[in-house]
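Table S7 (text form). Paired inputs.
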Amino acid sequence: MKSWEIEKSGSVIDHLAKIVDVLKNDSSQDDIKDHLAYALNDATKIWAYFYDALSEWKPGDPERIMDRGSEGIEELAVFYGALKETALSKEIRESREALSKIREYIQGPRSPNRTLIHDVLSPLDHKKPWIDKVESLTMTVSMGEKEWSDYIEEIPPLLDEWEDQICVKESELKERMHRP
């Protein structure tokens, strides 16, 4: 029965957070927001309770969802032990792993490392301009437009830019995951 209760209480929080996502910019909906805040207060306590994490519940938990919507739920799920990591922490971890592999691969020969770099980049979010720049430069080698020697001289600044973006994301994550 406990898994059903966890599912249901998590579902309530999820649906309420989605409403918050829609309403959070509409100041004419103050009453709805107040009711959502009260519902989230109880729902987060229930959710924490079912994960045996009531001692982890904080009065600011409902506000976290009110401020951040679905991202706030992810953060609470980590605090309560329902998730190992947030999407942002996963993105940071995967980016660090990819960056490390690419830095290793550019030390070696063009073949097979060019293909390995493509393999590392393929599952990543190419909507991020710093990842797109690395992919675009790597494609120039694949298409024969650029020599490997030129590539390994041009890629480090792009990798450094990517690393800088990871550091920004890590600071953002640290701020998000702070609990007074």
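Next pair, protein 2 of 2.
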Amino acid sequence: MATKRRLRIQGDRMSVIVEMFRRTAAPNRFSCSLPVWELLWDLGHTFGWHPKGTNYVLPAKSAVEVPARRNYEPGDSQDHKRVAEEDAMAWARAMQRAKESSHIAAMLEARSAALADSGKTGGELLPGVIDEFIEFAYGGGFEFAIRRKDRREIDEESGNEVLR
């Protein structure tokens, strides 16, 4: 069973963005701050999601046939992990139960208050974010990694923002 470890980040945790994406199916991309990622993990687990573990995304020429199971701690852009389709769907179902719970408003309020007490904003913890994540996770398996808001990178050829 996968366990949660708190990611050690120097500086402002709100400036760390967890990018989730898939190469096929829509919607293809979802991103949120690290505290919101942690909230999504906690809510999913609280409402019945049993995480199966992630796998590192391996290069095409890797000699590893079956990558080892890993946790849900986001790595940097060179350290993508993958949530399997069944696991993503189970997470979405748990988040749907969370959203329908009579306790969700109090849970979100408590998390926002805790962030505010630590000097951070809690405005991102709105039910709309949960709805967006549910829709994204129902789309199936996805990859994820972190990037800092202040480290946007632009591909010089295409002019598009890239995950690095």
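The longest strand covers residues 142-148.
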